[in-house]
Specification:
about 150 residues; 3 helices; about 35% strand; 9 strands; 4-stranded antiparallel sheet; alpha+beta
């Protein structure tokens, strides 16, 4: 497979022993975009080894501060993205949120605007999920948020 300009700047998450890659967070032909993604990755991947590349050259390598308590994951259109913790501000107008109660399996649509108003644009899904409770069984958490695309007419 031929490399393209898109492969120039990339950010990868590795295990602490640097033996296996967990995920590629970002690929970009633009250095400024890659730097912004690097700063966001440091904030959103606590306790993980991040490597920032320019082609094959390692530009930066860091074990991010913090500890991974519960591995974050985001469910987008039915697919689980392990290690991904989405901020409420990352959602777009075509996204719909669905909350699922892990205790009783009750589910409901949640308006992103209401969550943003209450928790702020920078709030991460992992923290919002812990704060939510089921309106059916009234047990505090655990609730799982899923991102879906708005149906087209």
């Amino acid at each position: 497979m031929a490399k393209t300009a898109e492969d120039n700047f990339r950010i990868e998450v590795w295990d602490r022993d640097e033996q296996a890659i967990s995920e590629t967070i970002s690929r970009s032909p633009d250095s400024s975009v890659s730097q912004a993604a690097w700063q966001a990755a440091i904030r959103r991947r606590p306790g993980m080894l991040l490597i920032h590349y320019n082609s094959r050259h390692v530009m930066e390598k860091i074990l991010t501060p913090g500890e991974v308590k519960i591995p974050p994951q985001a469910i987008i259109d039915g697919s689980v993205h392990a290690g991904l913790d989405v901020a409420l501000g990352d959602l777009r107008e075509w996204h719909v949120l669905r909350a699922w109660c892990r205790s009783c399996s009750h589910h409901a649509t949640v308006k992103p605007a209401g969550l943003i108003e209450r928790y702020g644009k920078g709030a991460l899904f992992s923290s919002v999920e812990r704060a939510l409770f089921c309106t059916s069984c009234d047990r505090g958490g655990p609730v799982r948020l899923e991102i879906h695309k708005l149906q087209r007419n």
